[in-house]
Structures are given as structure tokens and as C-alpha cells.
Amino acid sequence: MRRNFVLLPVALLTLLGVLCVATPGPADAATPATLRARLATPASGVTDSRSVFVTVTLENAGVEPQSVLRRFTPFTQFNDGPAFIVERDGQPVAYQGRMVKYAPATAEDFLEFAPGQSRTTSVDLGALYDFSQPGTYTVRLRAVAQGRASRTSAGAAEDVPEWRGEFESEPVTIAIEPQAARAFVAPWAMGRVAIPAQSQSGDVTYVGCSAPELTAAQDAVVAACAMASRAFAASCSRGSADTDWVYWFGTWNSARCDVTHQHYLDIMNRFCSLPMTLWCHGPDCFSGVYAYVYPQQVPPTVYVCDGFWGAPMTGVDTKPGTLIHEMSHVLSGTDDYAYGQSDAHTLAVTNPALAIDNADNHEYYGEANPVAPLAVSPGARTATLRPARPNPSLGGAALEYALTSDGAVELAVWSLDGRLVRTVERGWRAAGEHRANWDGLDAEGRRAPAGVYFVRLTSAAESRSQRLVMLR
Ligand SMILES: [Zn+2]
Fold it and tell me: Which of 259, 362, 387, 426 is 20 to 30 A distant from 209 in Cα terms?
């Protein structure tokens, strides 16, 4: 999901100038009421749908100086950022640009606005959204503003607490006539003529890595596989007793936990056993960036930058944690509502529904489940599922499996047409032999009808199946 903030009424928006919603912020009361955003389109119209320029103007209409964190606005290094809402004939048009994980902000990351000052930038939306279908598009800017306001009071400098809020422009409409419609070129494909040397390791393709970087990147992918496995196994297994989950995702709620559980399963499978690409030096890296992804790119591709190379393997804001952050954008559609431990935790407290949709919260919960000595080796055969006994069965069956290393597992019974009948076991298991019993009931406690079933064991590195015939 993207940008699903609940908006305040327009009258209040007009009153405030800046739209404050339930975004995190230690001092909502200090949100300046003075930032205005305006969009404009060229009078000449659009002649090529791959080149759709809008002009963005941000203005400080108040009497106090304001500073705005660039990263949530179009005033970034590359004027991209997912700050626009684009619709074609009322239908949402997906953002195709980058999602970036930034380092904590420093003074240079803020843009200063004196009272009355405005700044204008131009953004080529044709590179970020697919305008290839003729029609009428509406475009709005909806960005998070975060900043500090400092002012002088009775001759002394006074710090006004950091504020955070959303602001939104009026929409502009853009008509794409049939003769202007051209096939969309994805931004990751644009200008990529020469691909640096690649090396392949299992299902992971590494691009542009030196020999030591290749080793470090491989270690990070393996660690991300293990970290996601741990998070998958830990989430939802202890309910509200999982204080880490509550800290990063808010008040205990089993439906929300199921969402995060699924996210970690998808992320785990990707890092442990599915194709992906890692660029050791993203072509569009700049200072203060850990990594970025294009969520729509296939296969998932993580572009790492200097922030990644400076990150530790364990602790907070780690290499594997960065990979989990990025993969959550691709596989779980997470957004970047808040960066950093402090803001991410605040988001969990103030708006748990957004916390389960925020990439850094996924990273920090993963990092809260320490990765012990790496037990999981992607692609290695580590799990064996033995035939169910008895088979055929008149009721239940004993399900036995063996693990060559510790890891997360899920043991479940599936119908032939792909429906989950019953999850028998889910959690972190030590290496060795394990035995579980399926009582022949489905998740609602009804007797599973006669027929053929699959027992499936999913571990970090692989999935194993056995048939089970049920006679009644
Ligand atoms: Zn991100």
C-alpha cells in the first residue's frame, strides 16, 4: 500500500495550510501553518508521454523561517521521491521510481525557507509514472514535511521543536492525446547501456562488485535470509509477550501480526532461495544513502551505496537489515513514512497501521531478533520431510522431519487445489529430528474430507512436500 493517509477535511487544510495527519512527530503543535505547495503544467501541453514535466513550488507563507527535510519532497538530488499521487481517469497510476533508505538527517539535508521565500523545481513525471495510455491524468503533490523552525525571541535564539506534517497541493490535470502516447521506459532501464561485470552465486546475481565486496555482499544476503527467518519464526508465535513486535509494530493485534508474518515469509524466501540482483554500487547513489530499489523492477534488484558499506553486520542499521528494508518495499509494498529508530518507534505507538507498512520498522524488528552464528546457507539442502505415517490414513498422521541446522520452519497440510488446510507447526526449530501430529482436522476444527493432501515443510532454504491420502 502506498500513501494511504486519512486526510483531514479541506476546511481544516485551508486553515492550517499544512496538512497534519497522524504522522509521527514529537511536537505536532509546532507544525508550521505556513508551507504551501503548488503545481503547474507547461501551457504547451504534452507532446511525448515519456516527458511530462510539472513545476513544483514550495512557499513559506508565514513570518517565521522554516526548514524542510528534502527527502520527503521533490527537492531531492534527483527530483524523484514518491511524493505524487497520479490517477488516470480516476484510477491510480503506480509510482515506478526509487525508494531510498537514507542515513539520519544532518543540517545539509534541510532546505531553509525565509518568510515569504519560495522555491521552484521541475520534475519529469514521465520518467516516474507510466503515461503511455491516452487519457486525462490528475496529479497532486502529497509530501511529508519534517523540519525545525528556529526563531529569535526577545533577542535570543529559540529552538522550536521539530515538527512533522503532510502538505498537499491542489490537483492539476494533464491530457495525453493519442498522438503523444509512447511506450513507457522504466527508470531502471533508462540509459543503462553498459552493465558492469556480474557474478552469479546461487540465485543471486551480483553486479559491479570487487572480490572483497562480493564476499561481503554474499555474507549480507545470507545474513538477511537468516534475519528474515528469525523474524518470520518469532512474529506471532508469542502474542503480546513479544515485546519487540509491540515496540516496532504497536499494540498487539493478531491481524496486523499476520500481515508482518507474511511479509517476513516473502522476504525470507527471496533472500534464501529466489532470484534477485544486488548492485554493489548503485549508479544513482549519493551521499547519505544506504540503498535504493525500484519496487516494480523484476527480478528484485537492490542497489547498495556508501551507507550500506559503512554499516555493521550486527546491531542496528546493519547490512542485512538494510537489505530487509529494501526488499520490504519490493515484496510487501512498504513505504518510508519514518526513518530511524526514534521515528519508527513513534510511528508504531501513534499509528500501528502505518508501522506495518513502513520499511524501517521491518528492518528494526528483524535486527531485534539477533542472528546467531549463521545456520542457514541459501540453496543448501537442510531439511528432510519423511513420508507421513500411516499413509493412507483414516484420521490423523504423524509427520516427521529432520533439519541439519537450526532454522525457521512451517509445517502445513494443503489440499490438492492449493488451499491451506491446517498449519501444524510454525516456529524456530533446532537441528535434528522432529515429529508433529496432524489430527486430521482443518483450521476450523472440521474433519478434512477424504482425498489426497500435500504435507509441506517450508524452511529458510527450501520447501519439501509429501503426499498424504486420507480415507474416511
Ligand atoms: Zn525505504
Answer: 362
